[in-house]
Amino acid sequence: MPASENPTGPATVTTTVNFVVPPLDGARAYIKIIPDPVTGEHEKNYSSEKHAVEMENVRGTETQYSLDKVGFQWIKSPVRHTSFKDEDEVKKEYYPESVDLIKKVTGASEVVIFDHTFRRNNPVQSGETKQTRPPVTQAHVDQTTKASIARVHRHIPADEVPALLKKRFQIINVWRPIQVTALEWPLALCDYRSVDVENDTLPVALVFPDREGETLEVKYNPNHKWKYLRGMTPEEAVIFKCFDSVQDGSVAVFAAHTAFEDPSTPADAPVRQSIELRALVFYD
Prior knowledge:
Strand content: 25-35%
Family: Belongs to the asaB hydroxylase/desaturase family.
Strand order of the largest sheet: 1-3-11-8-13
Radius of gyration: 18 Å
Largest sheet: 5 strands, mixed
Helix content: 10-25%
InterPro entries: AsaB-like
Order of helices and strands: EEEHEHEEHHEEHEEEEEE
GO molecular function: oxidoreductase activity
Protein name: 7alpha-cephem-methoxylase P8 chain
Number of strands: 14
């Protein structure tokens, strides 16, 4: 049976995931986004370490997981746009479909998509382009609270920002396979309820030549509960939070995530191709 026709797979698999190790001197963690022109390396003052992690395959029980409960939610969502080759077409055709999807799932009143990323795994490529970025193999959350508020200021007209920040807002990602079933390097997400937010995360400054962003890297904790939906098809997507301004303990605030090497991936599986959108999500 071809790999693409066997999506069920084992109930759990064990793999390794990269987790952050904070700077030993206690300094603020940072990474320079522009690589060194000589070495090609990104200067940073922290490191990573690998840990064995059990990933639960939720195929068949995926409807038990909801955005506010755990930070992520899988959905059946066939889309009209399927080529994912032309940037302008993606923005013109796929963005509106995704806005409608986020509104339907969340009940939000306004959704502003501010970027997207293609990932196409190619182990032998040298460097990367916007169309050929590899999967990210580090447990992380895209935005901190500070960075999330900065995103609103960056992408929303200045006169609208104060009113929007008084109400609930989120940063939500929509991730889906494109062209082929995602059996190779699938995406795993960590149940927010298993995360000790204060002790398990590390803010990292993303240093650009003209500005700074900030992301949350994740430290290893054996209590984390990692989930994935094996064999996701282009007709399926996962919506997950990178930030929620409601932080009173009533809802999940974010979903740590990472790509991982699944030992149950068949040898004939196609290389992973995916698209992820990032959106500001506002409520009345």
